Amino acid sequence: MNLENATVNVSRKASPEEIAAVLRERIRGGELSAGDRLPTQAELAEQFNVERGAVRQALHMLQADGLLDNRGKGSPPRVAGLAEESQGPKGALVSLLPHLEEAFKDPKVSEVRIDALCFTAETLMHGLNHMLTVTENRRESLRSVRMRCLLPSEESELTFPVPVSQPEHREAVQRLVMLQIESQIHVMQGAFRFLREERHLDARGTFRRIRNTPLTKSYILNGRKVLEGRYHLGTHVKDVPEVGPVQVHDVRGLSSPLFVRHDPEFVAETQKSFNALWESIADSQTLA
């Protein structure tokens, strides 16, 4: 059974995350090349047996991944050029996916363990959604998935994003970020529920919050490797509800390059530091 049929031919309707995962595989697998137009929203809705709203959400996710060019009104989006992936450090999403796949496919382990410290969970969210397709024909030895994720608390005085010249909008800008984080947690809770109900894995994800702004992102996979990167601050425009476009100093996590470390001492120290944060100053626990 191929990926498309496995995702589409189910009794329930596909989620936007699953639709995005299928289209992402078509792009990365070469079925859709740079410059190709995707089918129309109506065609995709019929193909996946969903409402157009679900298709629109999936397309927004692919745009956030950098896989689609900006969509013009009245015309389907085109696949963005992917040639830059081979030039210099790869972006966080591009780097994280193959390492997550390796962790899920490793025949030597029965439990996948993921510990993550990040500013938002966008990169991790997309990675986990991709794992829903990876686990379709899962290996016999894979029994469980455990994830712990540390994210900024709603009570944090965030270092970014902050308005460039409109300080009166700071609260609205940062409230938008918190809403995005809550949405990402909700999507990941859905991914773990899917792993339990559809993949029959003992899957549990736990989220705790810290009252500061992470300046780096860190992923510890199966206690064997660390993927770590620094957030790059830049100036962007955010569309803030009830306010409108606001120019802000902010970071874009998906474009932050990651570097991989395997040396045991570094991995052990990173794990020790994460455990200390998790057990001491982290709060607001939410279980998936």
What does this structure look like?
It is built from 8 helices and 10 strands. By secondary structure, the chain is α+β, with helices and mostly antiparallel strands. The protein folds into 2 domains: 3-86, Winged helix-like DNA-binding domain superfamily/Winged helix DNA-binding domain (Arc Repressor Mutant, subunit A, Orthogonal Bundle); 92-287, Endonuclease, Chain A, CATH 3.30.870.10. The strands form 2 sheets. A 7-stranded mixed beta sheet has the order 9-6-5-1-2-4-10, sandwiched between helices. Helix 6 links the parallel strand 1 and strand 2. Helix 2 (16-28) crosses helix 4 (52-64), helix 5 (92-105) packs parallel to helix 6 (122-134) and helix 6 packs parallel to helix 7 (170-197). The chain starts with a helix and ends with a strand. Residues 1-11 and 82-91 have low confidence and may be disordered.
Key phrases:
288 residues, alpha+beta, Arc Repressor Mutant, subunit A, Endonuclease, Chain A, 2 domains, seven-stranded mixed sheet, three-stranded antiparallel sheet, globular
In a few lines, what is going on in this structure?
The chain is α+β, with helices and mostly antiparallel strands and 288 residues long.
Q: Gap between N and C termini, in Å?
A: 29 Å
Q: Summarize the main sheet.
A: 7 strands, mixed
> Tally of extended strands?
10
Taking strands numbered 1, 2, ... along the chain, how are they ordered across the largest sheet? 9-6-5-1-2-4-10
- Give Rg in angstroms: 19 Å
* Class inferred from helices and paired strands: alpha+beta
Order of helices and strands: HHHHHEHEEHEEEEEEHE
CATH superfamily of the largest domain: Endonuclease Chain A
Compute the number of helices: 8
CATH fold name of the largest domain: Endonuclease, Chain A
* Coarse shape: globular
Low-confidence segments, given as residue ranges, are: 1-11, 82-91
Number of domains: 2
At CATH level 2, the architecture of the largest domain is 2-Layer Sandwich
CATH class term of the largest domain: Alpha Beta
Question: How large a portion of the residues is in β-strands, by DSSP E?
Answer: 15-25%
Mean pLDDT across the residues is 83
- Helical amount among residues, as a percent range? 25-40%
